[in-house]
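lol forgot to send this yesterday, sorry. struct tokens for the thing we talked abt
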């Protein structure tokens, strides 16, 4: 891709990490940074990524940790949320989900670019 590696200082400027009822240890921070770096490698036009990790003791057993992600990018922002029994697993699932959303967004963008936008096709069909 166009961005093979991300400068850690650059990543820190674009990553907002917040713990809700969770102490963000250095290991947890480093894990999130390492996982989120993949998103920036796949899509260099990301403005900012916000990751919230929440520990909710009121949830059912097995879904105590909730990870929420918000990618600010040109066009509609991408928002995802996952829950699991482990904070690290929640982070993995969240990054996978956000990566899939970015991939679908890119596929749609490239498809529209190759085949013309849907609005243009619909307007042509209405005239006929």
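and heres what i got for the seq, position by position
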């Amino acid at each position: 891709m166009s961005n093979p590696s991300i400068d850690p200082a650059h990543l820190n400027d674009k990553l907002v990490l917040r713990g809700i009822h969770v102490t963000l240890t250095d290991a947890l921070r480093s894990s999130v940074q390492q996982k989120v770096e993949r998103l920036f490698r796949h899509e260099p036009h990301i403005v900012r990524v916000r990751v919230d990790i929440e520990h909710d003791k009121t949830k059912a057993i097995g879904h105590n940790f909730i990870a929420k992600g918000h990618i600010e990018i040109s066009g509609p922002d991408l928002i995802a949320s996952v829950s699991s029994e482990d904070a690290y697993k929640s982070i993995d699932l969240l990054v996978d989900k956000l990566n899939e959303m970015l991939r679908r967004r890119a596929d749609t963008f490239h498809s529209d670019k190759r085949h013309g936008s849907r609005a243009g096709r619909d307007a042509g069909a209405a005239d006929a």
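The domain at 8-114 is CATH 3.30.160.100 (Double Stranded RNA Binding Domain). anyway ping me if u want another try
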